[in-house]
Amino acid sequence: MKAGFFRQHGGLDVLEYGDLAEPVAGPDEVLVRIRAAALNHLDLFVREGLPGLKLNMPHIGGCDIAGEIAAVGEGVTGWNEGQRVIVNPNIWCGQCEFCIAGEETLCDSYGVLGEHQTGGLAQYIAVPARNVYAIPADYSFEQAAAVPLVWMTAWRALIGQAQLRAGQSVLILGAGGGVASAAIQIARYAGATVYAASRSPEKLARAKELGADYVLRSDGDWGREIWQQTNKRGVDVVLENVGAATWESSLRSVAKGGTVVTYGATTGPIVNIDIRKLFWRQFNLIGSTMANNREFNTIMRLVFWERRFEPLVDKVFPLSELQAAHAYLESAEQFGKVVIAIP
Ligand SMILES: [Zn+2]
């Protein structure tokens, strides 16, 4: 089968396009004929190598998968060849205390398809049948592939973890990123007032179109701006993924008793915190990663079956141009997802 992969970690030049062996659906698995897969920043980090990440080479990346069921393995019921699906990228054991409690992302065996295991930048993948999710016939594979990872991440961070509610206010950093553009729409849907920050005026204009009430240039003193715009109150929720570069301003922007929820550390993972401000202002600091299966099902239903949101595709590349697609994602010029069309 045709695949985009790498045999060693490194820069763009380690990416190859060629033929690899086609997988077979084992017991309780389905074989998916992939039609589109989306890239995430995670794909760049995995290509470059992450501490503690040991991969079987060659590695096929791509955590966001849309396609059709091509075969069903032994013991699989309820799925048929030709059904259109996306793939839940969660990998979990199903037996530990966290899995039993429905918190799969806390499982010791937790992983992500495309990161810890073979992903979707290929014509076929065999996945557990419990991971496939049916999508409507009129939903394009390109747009469907743009959904799973960023929408599940934004949903858990804002709704599951930070418990954003109607009438509250939220600051979303890095408007333009896949999670942030999903988060703007989810926050509006939740009935919150949305502040969006970005360094790019073009991205701020797009954020407004998506429903942001207020936009801020993140290269200015936006911590102070938020403070002024909210009458020295701050916002109820700050959605953080930038890390070191924005941390101080993020903490400054959160209201007393509010919540800073972080799901990334793009500019660096080590930050300072003044504990006196934490206890005196009594705000919450919480982490969030991906989403549990219940949250995944909720947000996928809202996106695919209730059509509440508009998943954004910025650009589609053919699989043979995977290097160019990685380079484009690295340039951070996109607004919405970079999607790979599978031949
Ligand atoms: Zn488990």
UniProtKB/TrEMBL annotation:
It comes from the Bacteria. SMART domains: PKS_ER. It holds the Pfam family ADH_zinc_N. Residues 10-340 form the Enoyl reductase (ER) domain. Keywords: NADP. The keyword NADP applies. InterPro entries: ADH-like_C, ADH-like_N, ER, GroES-like_sf, NAD(P)-bd_dom_sf, Zinc-ADH_QOR/CCCR. GO terms for molecular function: oxidoreductase activity. Signal peptide: none annotated. This is Enoyl reductase (ER) domain-containing protein. It comes from Herpetosiphon geysericola.
